[in-house]
Amino acid sequence: MLTLQSTPQSVAQAATNAFNKPANERAHFSQSAQALARVQDALAREIPGMNVNALQKLNAQDYTPDKIAERISQFVARGLNNARAQGKSDAEVQSLYDSAMSGAEKGFKDAKEILKNLDLLNGSIGEQVQATEDQTFAALRKLSPSNSSASFTAMNSTSVAAAQRYQKAEDFQLTLQTKDGDTVKISFNRALDAQASLGISTDGTNNQAAVLDVNRSESTGYQFKVEGNLSTEEIDAIQNLVRDVGQVANQFFNGDVQQAFAQAPNIAFDDAQLSSMRLRLSRSEQTSAVAQYQQTQQLNNPAGQTIGKLARELSDSAKQPALDFLDQARAAVNQIMQGLVQQDYRFQTASSDQQANYQNNLARLLGISPEAMK
Known about the structure:
The protein is α+β, with helices and mostly antiparallel strands. The chain has helices spanning about 10-20, 30-45, 50-55, 65-85, 90-115, 125-140, 230-255, 255-265, 305-315, 335-345, 345-350, 350-365, and strands at about 155-180, 185-200, 210-225, 275-300. Helix 2 packs parallel to helix 6 (about 125-140) and helix 4 (about 65-85) packs parallel to helix 6.
């Protein structure tokens, strides 16, 4: 990938050091090859992303005007193609190209200035340096994104996007008060949110782009608070009650709402030590999915840009309002709880009196009036 980063070291100073201290493996090079090698090093220091050290391992015959021009232009071409494949915009690709051109211009300027000061920019060496500059810029100009001429051939573009989201939330709140007026509060909550989206786009010429995005987050919280001084007897009574409440909560959070209600009367409440208890359980679970298919006819894109544009189009389609509902707030907890009860087969097969009893118990659990359940 072609990156845009500036080296912290002064380019002129770095280039001077390279000219004054050539690498040992270049000591046997001809004066002309050494000069061209150092010109290439100066270019590599100025063109963002190039590796100077890797270039220093080349042989003497690799330092000719045409080979240096080809090496530089191929590096820049790879960077531009990678940017397009990653879905970069035309403006971003142009910016990368402009940075490479600016780096090449400064690299040649610094190299020729130092060669001139060393009296090496005369005769055949000067001619080869000039030929290297001419051929390099000729090759780079061919890569200019602005030179790409659009073809007006119509083609079909097909894109498919699908997304799915799963959410689950559990909340447990228990408040106890002892005969002596002490208060114990226990709360627990857990939330899970998993999302996945997939998109595929093709332009009808065997060019395809695919995007897969998966996100998963989970959070858990627990709090235990005591206001007052608990006696040994009160602690024992609370432990027994919490044990039974935990069994009811497990049934409830596992989706067996009716069994949770059936177990509720068996909770061990020691009225000799405890004066009141308030238990609130809530559970919500939601799965949402959406799919979108689109086929359009559009003009062909310039060569080398198709995949990048497909990726951008696919990304844009995933942001359309058709998918916005995934981020909207879910139904209230009491509506979900009511749905869970009514979907349970034991509720559906129960008598009218039993169904009314279930609904009344759920209403008290959710803190709403029984009339709201009807």
